[in-house]
Amino acid sequence: MVMVESLAERGENVVYRAISPSEFFYKNRDIAGFSSPARSLYMSIRELVENSLDAAEMGRILPEVLIELGEEDAERGVYRLRVVDNGVGVPGDKIPSAFATVLYGSKYGFKQSRGTFGLGGTMALLYGQITTNKPAKIMSSTDGKTLYIYELMIDVVENKPRIISSEKKPSPGGWRGTSVEFSLEADYPGARAKILDYIKHTAIVNPHATLTFIDSKGRLYHYPRMVEKVPEPPRETLPHPVGVDVEMMSRMLMETKARNLLTFLTTSFQKIGPKTAKEVLELAGLKPETSPRKLSHEQVTALVDAFKRYDKFRPPDPTPLSPVGKDFLEAGIRRIFNPDFVHVVQREPSSYSGHPFIVEAAVAYGGTIPVTETIMLFRFANKIPLLYDERADVAWKVVEEKIDWSNYKVPKPAPLAVFTSICSTKVPYKTVGKEAIADRPEIERELTMALRECGRNLKLYLSRIEKREAAAKRLSLYTKYLPMIAEFAAKTVGTSKPNIKPLLKKLGITESELEAAKTGSQQA
């Protein structure tokens, strides 16, 4: 056996130190999706567009997002990226922290949002800084009157903003919103296909938004809004008891203003009334009048364990969710593909580990959908298109393994596209890069049920097509052979040819179709 001598055994000093979140992601940016110049450009655009859409919907504003990409240094592969929106804006005193502090943001409440970690936009600026050493320029106005302009860099060691310059002036033209502009090392030719797909897919799932992209060659990609209505935004609510762990419970107990456990449970969690609270406390062996701040570690653990063992909690409240909506999703699909058939299903709210979620699914057939051997799959989570790691996603598993499309009369190849959308207060992504959803049994079941319903409706449509084609084939035979049969029969019995036009009219055959069939027979 080989023995490895430690530094301490050799008498050397061992240095221990903590690193900031900025430094951690600076050293490990690959796990956030910033793994190459091409992928990093795609991630930067994606994260900033998501922030823009959230900012608009937060204020019930129809989103208008402009993305501009300019080439700054062709030899070094440096580009200048600018994303402008018409959202609620960021207060002037919050701009430095919001854009130059990793894991700082407004998305940590118990409600659905496109962002998850308060990381994406800041991570894009951090990537730009470490590849070009240039500051980012942030402009924002919350009222259309005052405009705040900052040039910022991130202090990686301290995880705090370093303000290069700041300015306050009247907002031109009454503009309100946020503009983010920075330089970054990028590979646009390598990322172009994914970026265009991302913008197109974002237009599908956000038909109420106007999206404009101007690339480094001056090419314009414009998706005007198709729906003049803002979806109902999610509303923040209390956590559900099933999703609480010991650490979260300890924090809530320390922060509560409740004087006893009974009040704490009924005011800190959803779906807990006085009767339920008493039953849970009895299960945990705790008295209702006990002060929340005086619980021992063992008692906190007992309370959390009682939450897990109590099986009478009602399902989580779906109000913190904002699904795409059947009308919105159908409008988005029709805008891009103009299909002959589309069917959208929205399942009832469900939950996993105390987190509510809603599954939506759609199938589209025909139109401009290309005919392929494999089904085209479009995945969305909290209205975000997922373009990478498709085969690692639960939606792929359901579409390819759980659903037998031949049972729904789908031919191969076929012009078929499948769309899946999951919204939740906590989407179970497999990685920080947010590209694939874990196969939670609850989500897998809801996706399967939704797609089976879509499949049944597609089968009815394809059956009608099949019947129409069979009827058309029969009519074609009647059109071609009935006149010949009538003529030969008349000659055989020595009578004049009967008038078969009334019969053909009953069968739905017009005179023009009859003449066309006669001409075809003569030519043959």
Architecture blueprint of SSEs:
Blueprint: H1 21-27, H2 37-58, E1 64-73, E2 78-85, H3 95-100, H4 120-132, E3 136-141, E4 146-155, E5 160-170, E6 177-185, H5 188-205, E7 210-214, E8 220-223, H6 246-255, H7 261-268, H8 274-284, H9 297-309, H10 326-337, E9 341-346, E10 350-352, E11 355-365, E12 376-381, E13 384-386, H11 394-402, E14 416-424, H12 441-493, H13 501-506, H14 511-523
Parallel strand pairs: 1-7, 12-14
Antiparallel strand pairs: 1-2, 2-6, 3-4, 3-6, 4-5, 7-8, 9-11, 10-11, 11-14, 12-13
Helix pairs in contact: 2-4, 2-5, 5-10, 7-8, 8-9, 11-12
Descriptive notes:
It is a single chain. With about 525 residues, the chain is an alpha+beta fold. It folds into 4 domains: about 20-205, Heat Shock Protein 90 (2-Layer Sandwich), CATH 3.30.565.10; about 240-310, Helicase, Ruva Protein, domain 3 (Orthogonal Bundle), CATH 1.10.8.50; about 325-465, Ribosomal Protein S5, domain 2 (2-Layer Sandwich), CATH 3.30.230; about 470-524, no CATH class. It is about 40% helix and about 20% strand. The chain is built from 14 helices and 14 strands. The protein has an 8-stranded mixed beta sheet with strand order 5-4-3-6-2-1-7-8. Strands 9, 10, 11, 12, 13 and 14 form a 6-stranded mixed beta sheet that branches. It is globular. The mean pLDDT is about 85.
Short description:
The protein is α+β, with helices and mostly antiparallel strands and 524 residues long. It is built from 14 helices and 14 strands.
